Every structure is written in structure tokens, then in C-alpha cells.
């Protein structure tokens, strides 16, 4: 998976979508259960600590492309490792 530059993770893209776009609740069990669907829509990621917009410790920012738009969400490192088999 591509590591993206933190500047791609803008406030507008953060507001453009969420896990609700996948009919998911932002909880570990729901995210992990939907990993194949999430993988299909994943563009890339970066370490969330390096974000200018909404930095977060012990997380990744994951960029998705769905319904002709880019958006991103935080994913804990634990969720990220389980979803992307790292």
C-alpha cells in the first residue's frame, strides 16, 4: 500500500466521508470484519502523528476513494495491522 504525503489529508477530505459511507460503525470489530471492502477502496495512508489536520497518536490516517470522492479516517495502529495484514 502506498504511503501518502500528509498534505493530502486535508480538513475537506476528512469531512467528505467516514466509515458510515461503508455502513460501518467506527469500532474495532466492525472495521476488521469489513477489511476486504475497505481494502478495495483504500488509496494509501500516512502516520496520523504527522498530519497537519487532526493529528493523532498511535493511529494511521487512511485515504479512501468511494463514490467518486476521496475521504480519510483515522484507524488505530491495531486496526490498521489487522485490516492490512501488516
Features:
single chain; 86 residues; alpha+beta; 4-stranded mixed beta sheet; 28% strand
Provide a brief overview of the structure.
The model has no long low-confidence stretch (mean pLDDT 96).
What does this protein look like?
The protein has one domain (2-83). The chain has a four-stranded mixed beta sheet. The N and C termini lie close together (10 Å). The chain is of the alpha+beta class and 86 residues long. The protein contains four helices and four strands, in the order βαααβββα.
Biggest sheet, strands in spatial order? 1-2-3-4
Q: Tell me the fraction of residues in β-strands, as a range.
A: 25-35%
What's the Cα radius of gyration? 12 Å
Class by alpha and beta content = alpha+beta
Task: Determine the number of helices (DSSP H or I, runs of at least 4 residues).
Answer: 4
Average of per-residue pLDDT values: 96
Number of domains: 1
Question: Regions with pLDDT < 50 over 5+ consecutive residues?
Answer: none
Amino acid at each position: 500500500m502506498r504511503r501518502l504525503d500528509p498534505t493530502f489529508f486535508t480538513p475537506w477530505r476528512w469531512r467528505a466521508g467516514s466509515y458510515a459511507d461503508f455502513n460501518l460503525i467506527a469500532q474495532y470489530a466492525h472495521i476488521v470484519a469489513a477489511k476486504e471492502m475497505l481494502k478495495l477502496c483504500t488509496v494509501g495512508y500516512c502516520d496520523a502523528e504527522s498530519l497537519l489536520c487532526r493529528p493523532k497518536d498511535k493511529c494511521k490516517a487512511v485515504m479512501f476513494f468511494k463514490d467518486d470522492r476521496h475521504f480519510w479516517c483515522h484507524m488505530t495502529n491495531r486496526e490498521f495491522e489487522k485490516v492490512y495484514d501488516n
